[in-house]
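Aggregate trends can hide what the representation actually does to any particular protein. For completeness, the protein is quoted in full, as a sequence line and a line of structure tokens.
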Amino acid sequence: MLNKMLAGAAIVSVTLLARPVLAEEVLAEYLTWLDARDIVTSKGATLKTFGAVLAQDRANYHRFGIRQELDTGDPLFGDRSMRAKLPQLYQAGDPVAAHIWDDVMSGRGHYVLIRVMGRNGKATHVQVSEGAG
């Protein structure tokens, strides 16, 4: 009886280990300076969430042509429907560091690196970290 249980457990273990692991991949990354221009909508309303600021920054870059000197492009957010997903993508990742949040939301500004992460070519979340430049 014990041998049958061990054999069954071994089969289950091998089956679980044989499943392909879906690797996380970087779908896109870009550098951007987030400042007072990115914390308000095109109609002048103040944004309250960091994900909304990220979406406004990409709208400023792609739609309105508002670009700071060190901003770089991205292959995803020229599409309005993808920009609309940025708040949820940010929410699905880790929160931004407090000093970055403070600099951006106060309007002082901060240079950040945005990585769009995903699986099988589909975005799952964004990572926000210090930019260099």
Observations:
- Residues 2-18 form the longest helix (17 residues).
- The chain has a mean pLDDT of 89.
- Helices lie at 2-18, 50-62, 80-84, 86-91, 98-105.
